[in-house]
Design goal:
6 helices, elongated, alpha/beta, single chain
Length: 329
């Protein structure tokens, strides 16, 4: 009886160990005879990723993270992953590291970088190695949130310092001024609306007149083309040539007359020159006329002589017998 109990306890222990082993292998996504393949990716950093974290494609677990190691130059982190063999991966692929749950578990998901253009994936130089990007973990997000909270606190304090009661009054006055200016602008626009309408009407009338003028000009050009193409055009041209010849002859005659007039003008100029010389002599007191005009004594004597002569003529008319005696016998 004791022997049988010991055997039963041993079988239970063995079964538990086997179940634990198979359970662990199942949880670790062991292949159980299925083929696997290894893929690698390079990252600037890997956050909280650990060995054994799941590798996913389109949300389905396809493998595990096998190894995480820093590159010899220290500029990148290489992650080696084992995934199922035979999977068709995206032609353009990269690895995105992100938290898998709220308990600190992370995952590596193979994605198309074109669907996540907001992330700066690492660009490896090696062929066949995928680039990667790690999202910030919760600790970094918390630190960033704390920083943002601190900045908001400082900003709030500065706003409270700047936004005083006087600032509020000034802001209210500025708003009132803006409203007043807006009202004035509205009134101005309404006042100018009529003027703009009249101006538009004048532009329209001017456009109509221009159109009429253009039509008239077109009719004129058409009429001119008709006249030029008419049979009488040749005769008109001949008449025009004859008229031009007559005008040429008339021009020659006018030119000859002009030359004669020039000779007459020269003679008149000579006569005026003589008059100028005579006038100059008179003004200089030369000759009888010059003496008469310049000597006041001679003028006075001439006036006396003329006066006596007038008196003599008057007396002759009144008393002719004094001067004329007529005797027949």
């Amino acid at each position: 009886m004791t022997r049988r109990l010991e055997i039963m306890v041993g079988l239970v222990i063995v079964a538990g160990v086997v179940a634990a082993v198979f359970g662990t292998l199942w949880l670790q996504d062991a292949s159980f005879g299925r083929g696997t393949q290894e893929v690698e990716a390079l990252f600037q950093e890997v956050g909280q990723l650990m060995r054994g974290n799941s590798v996913k494609l389109r949300g389905v677990t396809i493998g595990q993270v096998q190894e995480i190691m820093v590159e010899p130059d220290g500029n990148a982190v290489r992650v080696r992953m084992r995934i199922r063999d035979g999977l068709v991966l995206p032609e353009n692929r990269a690895v995105l590291l992100a938290p898998e749950s709220m308990f600190g578990d992370w995952q590596a998901e193979i994605v198309n970088p074109g669907d996540h253009s907001q992330f700066n994936f690492y660009q490896p130089d090696e062929s066949g190695v995928m680039g990667g990007y790690a999202l910030p973990d919760f600790s970094r997000l918390t630190a960033a949130a704390d920083q943002i909270s601190a900045n908001l606190s400082v900003l709030t304090e500065r706003v409270e310092e700047a936004f005083t009661e006087e600032t509020a009054r000034n802001l209210s006055q500025a708003i009132n001024n803006i409203q007043e200016v807006s009202e004035r602008m509205r009134l101005l626009v309404e006042a100018q609306a009529g003027a703009v309408s009249d101006l538009a009407s004048e532009f329209e009338a001017s456009a109509v007149e221009l159109g009429q003028a253009a039509h008239a000009a077109q009719l004129t050009f058409t009429r001119a083309e008709e006249l030029l193409g008419a049979p009488t055009t040749d005769s008109l041209m001949l008449d025009a040539r004859a008229t031009l010849a007559n005008l040429k002859t008339l021009s020659q005659e006018v030119s000859a007359a002009t030359q004669g007039a020039q000779g007459m003008i020269m003679r008149v100029d000579s006569t005026f020159a003589r008059l100028d010389r005579m006038t100059a002599k008179v003004e200089a007191g030369q000759g009888a006329i010059g003496l008469l005009m310049n000597d006041t004594t001679i003028v006075a004597q001439a006036q006396n002589v003329l006066g006596e002569l007038a008196a003599l003529l008057a007396d002759l008319q009144e008393n002719p017998q004094r001067y004329v005696r007529l005797s027949i016998f």
